[in-house]
Amino acid sequence: MSDLSRYKKTLESLEFLVNFLTQNHRALNHLPGWLWNKSQGGIDFEQFKQVIDDAKAEIKDFEARALALTGAPAPIDENDILIHSALRFQGYRYQQEVRLDSKPIIEAYKRGERYPEATGLDLLATFFLLQRFLYKWGGETLPKTSPHWRAFRQLFLETCSVEVPERYRAGAYEARWLYDIFPRIDSYRAIIEQIHTQTNYQNADSSSI
């Protein structure tokens, strides 16, 4: 049995004990004195609950870290960095909930401009949507000198430090970001920035996305 399995078993036993004692107070009379002290008001169930909640959080965090570190290899090129940085965010969900119109943001960034009205999460959602377009939904054949790629790289540079609210975190991609990419974000950002500044981009035009 692994250390994690033992930890889970211990947690399950503790949770069962607390639930049992909460529901069956007669059992308290059979507990040893060091655990049950009537003069001090008995067991502090709230404290036990905090211990249990903390242990559950630790297990969840450990499993996410294990998934990230045993999954795909660490990013080694531009595509790996950009893809994992975009997919850590549930961009479609955010776009739907806030009714984000990403087109004016994309058009501004394609021209090498900015869109000051956009929030950090608006920009991150736009970065996500460009990733979907460039890698899956019609933009796969665009050269990496296209205005879309200018926008895509610039949005990465501006959103790579944006924290994603828990509601919009994307499971394994978020874990990979947290444990594998973000600790190296300065070096990865430098890689993308160098490519971005050295690329001679085409002129922007209106397009479908």
Quick description:
The chain contains 9 helices and no strands. With about 210 residues, the chain is mostly helical.
Descriptive report:
- This protein has 209 residues and is an all-alpha fold.
- The chain has two domains: 3-70; 78-198, no CATH class.
- Helices cover 61% and strands 0% of the residues.
- The chain has nine helices and no strands.
- α4 (91-98) crosses α6 (120-135).
- The chain is elongated, with a radius of gyration of 25 Å.
- The protein starts with a helix and ends in an 11-residue tail after the last helix.
- The model has no long low-confidence stretch (mean pLDDT 80).
List keywords for this structure.
209 residues, mainly alpha, 0% strand, elongated
Number of helices: 9
Distance between the termini: 52 Å
**Biggest sheet record:** none
Please indicate the count of domains.
2
Overall geometry comes to elongated
What is the tally of beta strands? Answer: 0
Order of helices and strands: HHHHHHHHH
Low-confidence stretches: none
Helix content estimate: 55-70%
Mean pLDDT: 80
Class from helix and strand fractions = mainly alpha
Instruction: Give the amount of beta strand, in percent.
Output: under 5%
> Which radius of gyration do the C-alpha atoms yield?
25 Å
